[in-house]
Amino acid sequence: FLNNPFSLSSLPFYNQHARRLISFYFSFQFTCQLYLNNVYKL
Predict the structure, then answer these.
(1) How far apart are CA 26 and CA 21, in angstroms?
(2) Cβ–Cβ < 8 Å for 11, 5
């Protein structure tokens, strides 16, 4: 793995993509939680 330059060069791209997906998932989960809390309050 370490001798393969292609996998090493593509690692930052995958990390950035995964970080974007994780942040989107957490913000989506937070929005759903707020929505459910407002619904249950009503």
Answers:
(1) 9
(2) no
